[in-house]
Amino acid sequence: MISKNGFILENGVELPFVGYGTYKVTEEKIILDALDAGYRHLDTARMYKNEKMIGNALKECGIHRSELFLTSKVWKGDLGYDNTLRSFEASINDLGVQYLDMFLIHWPQSTPDADWKPVLKETWKAMERLYEDCAVRAIGVSNHLPHHLLHILRDCNVRPMVNQLEFHPGYTQAATTSFCVNQGIQVEAWSPLGRTRVLEDPLVLELAEKYGKTPAQICLRFCLQNNILPLPKSSSPERMKQNLELFDFDIELEDIFRLMTMPETGWSGQHPEHF
Fold first, then answer.
1. Could you give the CA distance from residue 228 to residue 230 in angstroms, rounded to a whole number?
2. Is 94 helix (H, G, I), strand (E, B) or coil?
3. Could you give the CA distance from residue 214 to residue 15 in angstroms, rounded to a whole number?
4. 41, 244 in Cβ contact below 8 A?
């Protein structure tokens, strides 16, 4: 569902339309610049090793906790019931907060040859406990394919509310995004700019000129018109602001389909079962 301010999860929690991805961000100034630009949804993870830095920026920014939406993730090397609970505690301690708005399972299996099913089941039980204890407002997954999600859905008390996927023009993971839509699971897009390679694609450049927008704005608007929440990252204050200026134009349906069916471009090479 969608409100005037953002996407609404199945449990009624609202997410801002656009989040700020913090992978490889190491400077407090960049976080403060993002907040100053208007971002209120910050996406981090235990593996990013920047939660303490982000916590320091949150203390300095002067924005009330209730105005922020903070997401973190348990790393694939920390799966399992007890490890997941410990990872959560470490995240909130480093961030300097008492709760998270959302907590995700970063990847479904620790190694390509791992026996992932029992471990994923125990990990999800820990996620449910955190949710039922009101330590987190929403729980979900990242990089989970339909068969991973089915394994959770068969035996859960609380359904995954979000699946964060690599998604951008040239790499749309149609089977997984369609499955999530049918299950009422909100999709978020990491690497919505295709690690910037998509920004140089001839079709994206053509559409940027047609609509009078930046190539990044075309990619991010493409996400939104597919009801997918993008998580762009930039260290430039100017581009940060541009990446939020997405609501004064629409991409025509014909062009949406051209972006959906363009040759695979910008894929990270990371596959949930081979990473």
1. 6
2. helix
3. 24
4. no
pLDDT-derived band of residue 195, with 50, 70 and 90 as boundaries? confident
Collapsed DSSP state (helix, strand, coil) of residue 104: strand
pTM: 0.97
Q: Active-site residue 48, yes or no?
A: yes
Domain ranges of the chain: 14-261
Q: What is the dihedral of CA 191, 236, 92, 273, to 10 degrees?
A: 20
Q: Which of 20, 39, 48, 131 is catalytic?
A: 48
% the chain with pLDDT above 70:
100
134 contact partners, CB below 8 Å, separation of at least 6: 99
Contacts of 30 (CB under 8 A, 6+ apart): 235
At the topology level of CATH, where does 14-261 sit?
TIM Barrel (3.20.20)
Q: Is the sign of the CA dihedral 242, 245, 250, 254 positive or negative? A: positive
